Amino acid sequence: MLFKQHEAAFRESARQLSRRDFLSRLGSGIGCIGLASLLGQNPAHAEASPLGAKAPHFAPKAKRVIQLFMPGGPSQVDTFDYKPSLAKHAGERPEAVNRKTLRNTKNGLMPSPFGFKQYGQTGKWVSDIFPHVAQCADDISFIHSMYTDIPEHAGAMMMMNVGALQPNRPSMGSWLVYGLGTENQDLPGFIAMSPRAQPRCTLANWGNAFLPGAYAGSYVNIAEMKPDAVMRDLKNSRLSTTEQRRQIDLLAQLNQTQLARMERDQGLEAGIAAMEMAFRMQFSVPEVFDISKETQATRDLYGESEFGKGCLLARRLVEQGVRVVQLSLSIDGYDIAWDTGHDDIVGGHAKLAKACDQGIAALIRDLKARGLFEDTLIVWGGEFGRAPTSEGAKGRDHNHYGYTTWLAGGGVKAGFSFGATDEFGCTAVEDRVHVHDLHATILHLMGLDHEKLTYRYSGRDYRLTDVSGNVVHGIIA
Amino acid sequence: MTAFQHLMRKTSPAPARMFAAGCLGLAAFGEPVSSEQAEFFENKIRPVLSNDCHQCHSAEAKALKGELRLDSRAAVLKGGDSGPSVVPGKPDESLIIKAIRYKDEDTAMPPKKRLTDAQIADIEAWVKMGLPWPENAGTSSPEAKKGYGFAKWRTEHWAFRKVEKPSIPSVSDNAWVKHPVDAFVLAKLEAAGLKPSPPATKTVLIRRAFLDLTGLPPSPEQVEAFLNDASPEAFAKIVDALLASPQYGERWGRHWLDVARYSDGLGGALDPAALPEAWRYRDWVVSALNRDMSYDQFVRAQIAGDLFADEPELRIATGFFAVGPTYVGDGGDPEATAQARAETLADRVDTFSRAFLGLTVACARCHDHKFDPIPTRDYYSIAGVFNNTDTKDIPLAAPEVIAAFEAAQNAVREQEKKLKAAEKEKLETTGLKAELERLRKAVPPAIPRAHGLAESGNKDMPVAIRGDLRKPGENAPRRFLQIVAGENPPLFTAGSGRRQLADAVADPTNPLTARVIVNRVWKHHFGQALARTPSNFGAIGEKPTHPELLDWIAATFMEQGWSLKKLHRSILLSATWQMSSRFNASAFAADGDNRLLWRMNPRNSEVESWRDSLLFVTGELDLTAGGAPTERILESRRRTIYGTVSRNGDRFLSDEFLRLFDFPAPRSTSEARSTSTVPQQYLFMMNSAFMIERARAFAERLQREASDDRARIGRAYMLLYSRPAEEHEINLGVGFLAGAANDPNPQTRWKSYAQVLLSAHEFRQIQ
Fold first, then answer.
1. Which of A371, B218, B397, B502 could bond to B300 as cystine, CB 3.0-4.6 Å?
2. pTM for the full model?
3. Domain total for chain A?
4. Contacts across the A-B interface (CB distance below 8 Å)
């Protein structure tokens, strides 16, 4: 409600501003043209509103992305890639799995400690640790044939989130906002969130690297929901809104006078617009991050876990027009949560799945109920998977030869499984999908040609997919 | 329209980045490969050959399949077991086309996955064109490089030509010319029918000079004194005084630190080193500029300062490389370790070549440079130098002091061992303990250290095939780039070769070094460089708007002993630099980008200058120079250059603030800052504790320095904008102060008003 009042106050003052019509004083002919068209007309002025919504390369299937990032490497054979052969050949080390793992484990196959059941019309086998997501199996496109370049966390996480092994490229989210802008100018275009720990490599996962700063993701730690944790300097502790409005009006006036004096200054024109946006963000940002605005029924749907609340926030954000949300799982302050799988699949994976399962399923259901599911793309997965063989007595080492990522919503087939690992879930053998291919596909679903979305830097055109990437047409509805 | 149609119709102009056809030289093609064809090959054909074919069909294949190689035009024509793979011009008769069309299961290629329709169409188009294959592309075999066309490049591409001092052009309006620079600028303006803008007013001029050279505004008293100085040397005196002030080095040193991708380390998981001594390199840069160290020496010191035995202080300068990212793996996987090593070397080559030479040599890491005459082997010639170099902490003390320190430390260690042994055998330890205590106290104070470079070997490295260090190709002798140093440059044989590398860069016959630095300097004086891609002078960089001017300045710069201060002085005393930045509708219509320099470019101060100026006008700025950085720069009153900078800009509050205002990410060298306008910047101005504090201090200063509101407003305008307030501005201020009727405290109202004045765009603008 408060927000509505501020909004009304703002609109009124915006009307006054336009009545004042400083531009008409310019006298050089530019004055007849409104500020907005001045901003829009000059092609050299692309910087003026870097986040304004831009047309995609072709009609998109999805308009926004929610990435549910699972740092640390969830095990495919204990979650969504059901391999009954593991039980049959327990303890054996067949040639197919006799591959080098990070820690050079030499043990035999370890059956999943979890039960699997079939779900939905497709009869999809899903592990017992994901009972809620399992109920949504008919809405999901599973890619069982993912593979990546290296079995180390940081490098593989960079591959997943920036498309290169080192943290010196723009993140996928920043590429998307660079390519498409965003729908709500009162909120950042790309928001990254996690409870407590940031995923390893931190800022690089949502950073802009060499893209202009406007495309950087804004990170929010959702363990703490105070406005200043959401965005720095969002609140003024001393001034009333009225007094601040007076400040803004005076500043606008000073800047307009300066603009008139300089007669033309595109940076300043953009600045005047940005200042108004900043004023509004003071109200719009806390509002969108306030989940107490939701009904009890909705909050119950998402559950009590921090990640579950993050899923609810993700829905609120995309609903308000945020282009990309990256929500990373973290519990106990660990930056590669799923890596607890080294020692103990049972304890680690069960706990992690419990922390996210209900929220993820709620997100799918809620988006569907609100008619947002069909043009919102959900991407679930980690940087790699885990070996079907054991490490120690009950753990699994990293495995980058094959693992599972799933997509749902915006433009992907529902209730579908694509590609396959070998009999034991070790290596992707059928319809292999590299991370570059996944990126090409995500961009494609968002209406962007991954070969055309380029940025000239340091003497060459860079792409999210570097010199690789093929769209996985097989999963597109 | 397919790419093929596009090439055949040639209706669209070639992309701007394409450079004159022919420089790519004659291909093994029978006729020249046009630049469009070369680009088509590089973008459409070669990636397919390399990603989908070469694994089995190239010299690099582990097991060559069907005796077929697809890594040169000749090899494609020769074919394999099944005969020639292509009939040029006739896709339908070419075996390779049949294979990729996947019509016949036995010959379908690539075996695992059909190429996309677009890729197949491209290869058909390529065969139809007759298989154009630019000779500098393809394999890294030495024969492929024959006739790379270096000589032609050296005569045809502006940046590779010798720097020769051109004659000063004649102009009609001789009266305008104050300096030879002006003649070059005016000649172009006159040719385009444009006039230079009138001179800037004295108040604008002095503010511009202060902000440009020191990053701080003039005080009202300095403005006053300048206005009252009618002597012809008045402005030159100001320039000289500013160049002599220590704030000059802090301002211009920071420009260089952008190029040096300076940070205090802690890049996170893959580049985790803390660089607690990095600031010593920062201080060295500031001091070198303040002393006006000749630029050739500045270059030599940063590349090989540790190898100048007689000048130990120069070792700190090698921090240029040592403060860069040094990548490591995250678990010991050999593939990841090799990648990390390769990426670290790429940082060294990239930073080295873009910073000093304006060349993107790192583009040649996996394949010959696509646009410039830089073979892959040249990349590894330079990478080899850094492969024999380690980063190392350098003790900063005389050898005898170091020896004494180490001896004392060793004595402590020995005593500790003795004590441990005695404790193990449960012997009496009182005496040993006392002695240990004495020895510990006797250790002299820790010797300061700097992050620098040290030699670690003397061995060439092989070309890494497709950039993978674990796939060695031919040997790449350490030597300088062939495009600069000739086809058979002298080999670097002394140690890593860094000393020779440094000399090759600083050599006055090197056509790039002087051009690159004077162009950077020009950029910071005008907001735009003459060549607008300051770190890329290659074929796809922007050509200079005034090539003769650039050469004249570069040649003069070298004649004057590579003195940066002389360069600044001559630029600031030119009529060109002193032009007004006012808008002019007709000139704007003719040259909206101001390429011809019809006015000074209005621009914004960088974030450092803006924050420093805020503290300066409130009277709070602490001008202490040098020393360890602070992570809490927003709470400090020191200049912004003394804030801690982390590699990713995510570690410290100082980082977050800097990056909000376009501070470049120090992951790689930066040639220019972006100028973004985002709402969060205004949130900072409206709500941050820093701005609220400055507003308070400024309001208090005005309270002290003037007796009524109108006078305070006038004083504020002089302090902030170096000009008197106009009547309507004073009235606006008075109105604002009166408007807060519900707040009886005048000080609160003044703080609110002061914050607005400090946030105004005019304060940040250099007119």
1. B502
2. 0.78
3. 1
4. 223
